[in-house]
UniProtKB/TrEMBL annotation:
Keywords tagged on the record: Transferase
Entry protein name: CoA transferase
Top-level taxonomy: Bacteria, Bacillati, Actinomycetota, Actinomycetes, Mycobacteriales
GO MF annotations, alphabetized: CoA-transferase activity
Transferase listed as a keyword: yes
Length: 347
């Protein structure tokens, strides 16, 4: 491949913290020119840590503009005139106040794609919409955790990251279409869309999600976390072929069909738990993987990163997880995040 997939595409970002900056970083990794527009003093995530900022802003350039000033608005107009898209994640009232919509910016560039990332939509109001709040509001927290325990949140920002990827997809769709316009992506709707089969089961069959111990699947058995002689093992048996292979390795007889295993869940889980106690999680992983059975020892992040050196990259002085998108013939060049620029006072 000659050049990068998104060579020649310029994207402006007025991003805060995670969702917006993650979306544009995915585009920058694919070769888009991303210009991060920061307020005087810099985007707030610079205050978290240098590594935090680097993990979301590599491969970008940065300019410092006061978008509440006439000078800042003039410079914004100049940038918009020569760009393909603008992506922003802020409250709807702030987006409109700063004029970061297609309705306002089309006069400078009728083909500009304006992507607004908000909590509840551009017309959904300004209620606070942080990642954990959205997970609570959309049912994700309620269906996560053990039945007798409290609702549980994952250990990373799933709503922000998912919304970032969705926004990047919407932005590229409009660029491919070759027309300008407003793209409206909100955290709430993204998380609801990711509940796809759970939501469909309730909407069509009245099935309310319930929690099972150890994160067990509602139908597939065994498909959950299991304690072993040392550590926990994730085992995911989705069809009878997997079960036959696993049962033979574990010394378990009976329950040949998925329907029977689902109907006799507790019996099956007791037998599997007893069998897995005979070896460590990593031992079972080594035994089951060659058989093609989906299984993995539960690892901490340090161990997981050590096991996947091919996923790690260096951007300046920072070690980071690289782009998950592999394109034949293209190797991303990872540049460090931009230093905080001086305020742009050009007219």
């Amino acid at each position: 491949m000659s050049g990068s997939p998104l060579a020649g595409i310029r994207v402006l970002e007025v991003g805060v913290m995670l969702a917006g900056p993650y979306a544009t970083m995915m585009l920058a990794d694919l070769g888009a020119e991303v210009i991060k527009i920061e307020p005087p003093g810099g985007e707030i995530s610079r205050q978290v840590s240098d590594s935090y900022f680097a993990s979301l802003n590599r491969n970008k350039r940065s300019v410092c503009l006061d978008l509440q000033s006439e000078q800042g608005q003039r410079r914004l107009a100049e940038l918009v005139a020569d760009s393909h898209a603008l992506l922003v994640n802020m409250k709807p009232s702030v987006i409109r106040k700063l004029g970061l919509t297609f309705e306002n910016l089309r006069r400078f560039n009728p083909k500009i794609v304006c992507v607004a990332m908000t909590g509840f939509g551009l017309d959904g109001g300004d209620d606070p919409a942080f990642d954990y709040v959205i997970q609570a509001a959309t049912g994700v927290a309620a269906m996560t955790g053990d039945p007798d325990g409290p609702p549980t949140l994952p250990g990373y920002s799933s709503a922000d990251n998912s919304t970032g990827l969705t926004a990047a997809l919407g932005l590229l769709a409009m660029i491919v279409a070759g027309r300008g316009g407003q793209v409206d992506v909100c955290l709430r709707d993204v998380m609801l869309s990711q509940l796809n089969y759970r939501a469909a089961a309730y909407l069509n069959d009245g099935v309310v999600p319930r929690r099972y111990p150890n994160g067990a699947h509602s139908f597939y058995v065994p498909a959950q976390l299991f304690p072993t002689a040392d550590g926990y093992l994730a085992l995911f048996v989705t069809h009878d072929g997997f079960w036959r292979l696993f049962a033979a390795e574990a010394g378990i007889e009976g329950f040949p069909t998925m329907a029977e295993r689902s109907a006799r869940r507790e019996e099956v889980l007791a037998l599997v738990t007893a069998a897995l106690a005979g070896d460590s999680a990593k031992g079972w992983e080594a035994r089951l993987r060659p058989l093609g059975i989906p299984a993995a020892a539960v690892r901490g992040l340090p161990d997981a990163l050590e096991q996947t050196p091919e996923a790690l990259v260096t951007a300046g002085g920072f070690r980071l997880v690289g782009s998950p998108i592999r394109i034949e013939g293209y190797e991303p060049q990872y540049r460090p995040p931009p230093a905080l620029p001086a305020a742009d006072h050009s007219s």
